[in-house]
Amino acid sequence: MYFMSLQSEINKRRTFAIISHPDAGKTTLTEKLLLMGGAIQTAGAVKSNKIRKTTTSDFMEIERQRGISVSTSVMAFEYKDIRVNILDTPGHKDFAEDTYRTLTAVDSVILVVDSVKGVEEQTRKLMEVCRMRHTPVMIFLNKMDREGRDAFDLIDELEKELNIAVSPYTWPIGSGSKFKGVYNIYNKSVSLFLPDKTNIPEDIIETDNLDSQSIIDFAGADLIAKTKEEVGFVGDFFENFNLNLYREGYMAPLFFGSALNNFGVKELLDTFVEIAPPPGKVEASGRVVEPNEEQLTGFIFKIHANLDPNHRDRIAFMRICSGKFERNKFYHHSRLAKKVRFSSPTSFMANAKSVIDEAWPGDVVGLYDNGDFTIGDTLTEGESLMFKGIPSFSPEILREVINMDPFRSKQLDKGVRQLAGEGLAQLFIVPAGNKKIIGTVGELQYDVIKFRLEHEYGAKCNFASLSYTKACWVTTTDKKEMEKFMLRKSGSVAFDKDDNPVFLAEGDWIIKVMKDTYPSLTFHNTSDFKLHLNSGVEKN
Ligand code: G4P
Questions:
Q1: Residue 309's CATH number
Q2: What are the tens digits of pLDDT across the range 440-453?
Q3: How far, in Å, is the centroid of ligand 1 from the Cα of 164?
Q4: I need a surface site. Which of 228, 252, 470, 536 has the fewest CB within 10 A?
């Protein structure tokens, strides 16, 4: 009986993230999906978690925006008997690592691409992470109401730059000022474009084929003839949609539309609930966890700390991988090997949060935390288990922490470790001189860390620039050679939070020199959070 209800809860769920380069239309699309799912009633109800360009140096503003993003962390709604969980991702590139980590907690993604701009920098990076994890991807080519680029050119660019087969599911009838609608190649219906920025247009005209007189009257005979010709080419140039290839992450179905005008969004959502995968198996160290296992497993992929001194609570976000989560039940915290229970686990739904009694695979629950959790931690019903996570990426900026108040060095140490545990930045310790080095992907984190150390831990620090431009994780097949390397480069070898050795390099040239001198060493640009537990990486 329990098994049956577990399985039906799993089948009902679709957990995904919308990803995009900033400004492509992620927030707008999210809002339109929520409108369609009945989770919100009016447009504008979802606040953008976007950090406005004018305030990039104002980190309190960032925190305010991050506060908004807590309440929009997970937005759930029901559509056609499917429970859709949308996991929000930060728009700002300095918080890209947050987004990468959120991608560990989803079963699929919708990638939004601006049809005027095509593939942009963040599009490329995010897709790299999706490919690495074989995450199924649907693509929404947005802003078709703008004078954009030729659809064939755009698809060509998507395929080449994102390294994925693209299969058009719909096809645009014109574009820009001549954008008249989309033709659904699979069910051969046509939706005509009637711009409506606020509500779900109820008067979308659907008809069977492109030859119907009402469509020709609406779009003009020339445009329809051109569209028919293009649709013919689509069959010649691109592969037909294949569900298995999509679910394995090799093929992305493509949709054209305009999120702002609520157009093409219904086709996207209808297809999404039909083809997107339900919660699947998750790889852990030592075994694979199936969602329909009776015992609960889940992992923390995001931690949000409140900056408000009156509310020092942290919320850890856990993705449930298997079993049923229950309020007030004791669970096993794998890393600390201790029992924990939660009296007020929350779910977040479009700006409102509520206490929940139970949750199922694919769901995300918010757990109030007083410092027990770090990113990647696992809850089980007793088993000692760690999920394989997403790598930490080699940080782009490295700075040394300089203690400005010698009487508070313990607090500084604790603060730096806890903030790194939250995933705000990476911490590397150089044993020679016990130096603390903070690595980030953006400048903003340094302001946030400095502020938080002072306000939450009473510690003062500065950051000193370093000549390093890269941090690479080092593994070896020859322990002796590793020892020699460590001895020779002791000033530049640090350890990450899991005690994995990391080489701090001044540039690619020095890595090449080291590779030539110590051929058994491998230098990695990324480090899987949990891989070290079973990959035999040397620890010192
Ligand atoms: P993001 O979350 O990916 O960063 O993008 P967001 O949805 O905030 O959209 C970025 C800008 O693009 C917004 O304009 C939004 O109105 C616009 N936009 C989104 N979808 C479409 C579309 O289909 N067609 C057109 N023409 N524009 C679209 P903004 O002026 O930056 O912000 P706002 O003042 O309108 O909020």
A1: 2.40.30.10
A2: 877 878 888 898 89
A3: 26
A4: 536
